[in-house]
Design goal:
Elements lengths: L6 H18 L3 H6 L5 H9 L18 H14 L5 H16 L2 H13 L4 E4 L15 E5 L2 E12 L6 E7 L9 E7 L5 E5 L11 E12 L3 E2 L5 H37 L1 E2 L2 E2 L4 H29 L5 H26 L10 H10 L7 H13 L7
Parallel strand pairs: 1-4
Antiparallel strand pairs: 2-3, 3-7, 4-5, 5-8, 6-7, 9-10
Helix pairs in contact: 1-4, 4-7, 4-8, 5-6, 5-7, 7-8, 7-9, 7-10, 8-9, 9-10, 9-11
The structure holds flavin-adenine dinucleotide.
Amino acid sequence: MDFALSDDLLAIRKVARDFAQNEIAPTVDADDKAHRFRKDIVDKMGELGFLGCPVPEQYGGSEMGYLAWVVIAEQIARVHSSMRLPFNMQMGPALTLLRYGTEEQKRKYVPGLASGEKMGCFAITEPNAGSDVASMRTTAIKDGDFYVLNGGKTWISNAQVADLALVYAYTDPGTKVKGMSAFIVEMNTPGISVAPIEEKLGTWAAPTGEIIFENCRIPKDALIGKEGDGFKICMNQLNDTRLGCAAGALGVAQACVDAAIEYANQREQFGQPIGKFSTIQDMIAEMVVETEAARMLVYRAAWLKDQNQPSALETSMGKYFAAEAANHCADKAVKIFGAYGYSEEYAVARYYRDAKSYQIVEGSSAIQKMIIGQDALGYRKANR
Ligand SMILES: Cc1cc2nc3c(=O)[nH]c(=O)nc-3n(C[C@H](O)[C@H](O)[C@H](O)COP(=O)(O)OP(=O)(O)OC[C@H]3O[C@@H](n4cnc5c(N)ncnc54)[C@H](O)[C@@H]3O)c2cc1C
């Protein structure tokens, strides 16, 4: 979709591609197999302004916009899906503070998140509350100048490396949704403990963990927006971070296309490159088309955000389609590689593992289809 990218965006894409190939690719296999989180790479991405593209310069961002953010995240995920996660973990809290925070909160936290100096995370999911966000049980009860947090979050990316967390909890536990509030929480606050989730299917180099709050007293000015705004804030945060996920899925899909084409041209069976077989061409054609279609949807959603236009529906479409494309492409790439796709010798096994998370996180594919279907049927408009 180069026709839609300006010269500036093409140049940004080249910088991101070169960065990923020079700084991430040389150690990607070793880092992934060692489950090694590379904070030094996060710092470099922060220095280059990659993480803070949608953040105004006055708050430490590079102000390059959402489309640039997506183009960069895609190139990073194309090399290592785990290293795409910081785009969401930094921007989930930062963009939420920019939208709903006080001037003091913005100045205090956003520059560190945009630069990568302060690692961020967002904590929505609980053991019994996944897709059904409103069923969360964590509470934040007002006590003088403090809120007291109690509860447990799980599957939180960056839990064990985060300095700051965007936390959702009930300030009024009796009332569904309307009693939910959002907080910016410093992770060194007493009463917070973290336990890593070590064994997972993919994204091995991206930390994941549980966060437990036990009588954790956070200052009352940690509240973002007003009490009761939490559910609305959460849905708006997901509209941003869903886009980052969609870009990651797109990068994985493209990586599968790249690997499959190279392998099909080089691997010979029956005296010719396997790419000469129509079944292989068929698979590669489907991979190429799905990846291109995903790119159009994802870039359009980012472009809408840059125009300050409603984008929730388009973001859901992009996230759904890109996540499915990444999985279809990874599945086909493994088939094209045969036994070598099943081995750890080539990267396609990693793409296959990493692709899966995109169908689950930030609203599963089923949830995106629910949003899109209900909008189409007129039951509940996504762009309200
Ligand atoms: C690698 C990874 C990183 C993550 N990072 C974070 C993070 O940083 N912060 C955070 O808060 N969470 C994070 N999560 C959690 C993630 O957001 C949840 O896993 C996700 O919301 C789905 O919730 P669940 O796993 O409880 O599945 P469930 O909600 O229990 O869903 C199980 C199945 O039921 C389907 N389903 C559920 N409801 C419906 C419905 N209404 N209609 C149709 N089908 C439905 C789902 O699509 C799914 O197939 C992460 C998860 C993973 C795997």
